[in-house]
Amino acid sequence: MKKELRSRIIKERQKISREDVLKKSLEIKNKLFNIPEFINAKRVMFFVSYKNEVDTIDMIDEAMKLGKEIIVPIVVPGEKDLLLSKLNSMNELEESSYGILEPPKKYIRPVSAEEIDFVVAPGVAFDENGFRMGYGGGYYDRLLSKISKSCKVAAIAFEMQIVPEVPTEPHDMRIGMIITEDRIISPNI
């Protein structure tokens, strides 16, 4: 059931035009950048968008200009884990073997998950109860289990990624806020 839902949502998301991705991403960015917890956060972790995900490139760039310390994830091959690194410039990103923009070794500045104030999380599908379905590797479930209790987590997604119910497993963590181009979903957690 999870596999079929994941596949269906990814296929539907791939049909969104680049123009619409950018337009909807701007609407999502405007909501995110007006959230008090985001405004007050000093260290913000962003995923670097890939394919037809909500575009985070402008968000990262603008957050840097606002003086926020930006943290990005790096996939650790074979370990099903994410290394977190401080990003000083968008020019430090290069395409990895996974096709994802990440800092190469010379630009890696490790940061622990406990040091982050705000996480902007990706996902494939979400429901209004805050359940998130990722790409199936468990990377973000593991990461979110390591952050401090005071760290705010907001997932960003297109409205078409919101489904009636995400199939869950006991280890699945709920997200406290989901931001789409149409609304902000704040489940009672």
Automatic annotation (TrEMBL):
It catalyses: (6S)-5-formyl-5,6,7,8-tetrahydrofolate + ATP = (6R)-5,10-methenyltetrahydrofolate + ADP + phosphate. ATP binds at residues 2-6, 132-140. One of its GO terms (molecular function) is metal ion binding. The keyword Cytoplasm does not apply. GO terms for biological process: folic acid-containing compound biosynthetic process; tetrahydrofolate interconversion. The lineage of its organism: Bacteria, Bacillati, Bacillota, Clostridia, Eubacteriales. This is 5-formyltetrahydrofolate cyclo-ligase. Keywords: ATP-binding, Ligase, Magnesium, Metal-binding, Nucleotide-binding. It comes from Oxobacter pfennigii. It is an enzyme of class 6 (ligase). Its EC number is 6.3.3.2. It holds the Pfam family 5-FTHF_cyc-lig. InterPro entries: FTHF_cligase (IPR002698), FTHF_cligase-like_sf (IPR024185), NagB/RpiA_transferase-like (IPR037171).
